[in-house]
Amino acid sequence: MGLWSSGYLHKTAYDSALTLFVRSKALVLGSNDVEENSSSDFPSRPTFFQKMDIITSEPLIVNGIQLQPLEPLDLGKYRTVSQVVQGMEQSSFGARCLGEVTSTLETMICEKKKPLLVYDGKREIPLGQALQRMVEKGWFSKVILPEEYAAHEPLGGNVIVVGPFSERHEDAIFTKPDRALFINNQDKAKPGQIKDGYYPDAVFSHPDFVIPVIEAALQERVEGQETKVYELLRRLETAGEHTHQAAHGAYILNKMLHDPACSVIMTISGAMTIAQLSLCISDMVRIPNGVKAIASTGALMAHGLAQGLDLRHYKYDPRLTDEVLLAHGLNRVTDTLEPETNFDQIDDAMRHALKTFNGERPIASWEVNRAIGQFLHDHHPGSERAILRAAYDRGVAVYVPAFVDSELGNDVNVHNREIEKSAGRPIIVNTELDTLHLMDLVVNSEKIGIFTLGGGVPRNWPQNIAPYITLRNKRLGEDIPERKFSYGTRICPDAPKYGHLSGCTYREGGSWGKMDLEKGQFAEVLFDATLIFPFYVKYVMDFNERKAV
């Protein structure tokens, strides 16, 4: 049997290779390291030694290109908005874009020739006023309309384009400046600037939110004036309709967490752990009055488990094609790379966790996640802030309602195939048990709240508990106490017009009897969750600290 049969390493070879390779300062993977297969044009399976290289946290070099390791965003290390934004540079997706653009602007405004602001909006609204303030501080030379820039400005210099602009002026915006940064929620940038998985010099989110955050960060870095997250939220209250909702969402989240009668269920979809936000999710469990349950995709928990095992993700470099990444065992998730060896380590953790079940009865997905958390508790003493470890320590159930659609589901399936070979009993994951377990939490809570990141099955499944109880009472003649959500904060950029669940409003859910539209308090925050979720978590953490003083 080969070393990579069934995806598992032979332990003796593993230990020998690990001992050999951790001695080097940098790990170099070149084209000569790839196994050749002359019978096929398809990239060959990564060699054992290539995959072993990636297990360590040393610099990773692929075909002469050094890949940047990413770091989970640790809000406990930061006090101010600027520090949080700086930490975002080592994250992924929108959070990284915001962090990198802010650092680029810090460099630009310290140069002798100041950058130019191109803005087609109203000067009297909060966004226009914020841009003018930054001009008055001497950070930028002036605010100019796109048509004025196209007609009168000379070639060269740095330009920051805020908000939308007409195609009548885009040729000038794309060709005249030495460098242009784009901040808008229309995904507009210079042709060829943005590539699949590569988003330099752009933040694709509403400027009403992005500009106040950048202003606060630059104010600290250039002038030494700190801004705390709660102070930023106060500014956002009056910075526009979208930002008012952003501030309102933080306040509603904090209120439901501190309502002693309320049990808060957090739902997560999207690549939030790949985004290096696993510690933020863990903090939502660990804080006083934290969430009482989590509904998530299995992929989120798998990627988060990799970080709980102190494994690395890397920043994608577009010079490496997906064929090259495949050949070197690097799985791409948009702008982030997950080494295949991470999954081998996850496999090992899963094997240990699954050994605690004998197959005599069906189990729920939350029991699988609890077993993984216990494995981390028993074998990885430094994993206290891993999501599943934190949930295990605090008795918080982590549900994966679409369990088969994940690496965790694959692991259980493969485990069962192995069990069958030895005539053992397979493990059956029955998600109906999750529904019954969640119902117990709901009916034993006076109030329930929901904190939603994204949409998908993790969002709809907990919301469906109210119609489920109603249906049982109606069809079976039971008398189960009915519950509707009293609080809700949803962070997702999707609008309702597309018709999918991610854009569904809480009010729409109220028409199904899921939300208490009469007395409930809800917020719809139409932003990239990687951008705003960390500020929400930091706000709640700081609130608890201020309350304790």
Radius of gyration: 25 Å
Q: Order the strands across the largest sheet as they lie in space.
A: 14-10-9-15-16-17
CATH topology term of the domain at 75-223 = Rossmann fold
| DSSP, total strands | 17
Q: In percent terms, what proportion of residues is strand? A: 5-15%
Structural class of the secondary elements? alpha/beta
* CATH top level label of the domain at 75-223: Alpha Beta
Q: How does CATH name the architecture of the domain at 75-223?
A: 3-Layer(aba) Sandwich
| CA-CA gap between termini | 62 Å
List keywords for this structure.
disordered N terminus; globular; single chain; 549 residues; Rossmann fold; five-stranded parallel beta sheet; six-stranded parallel beta sheet; alpha/beta
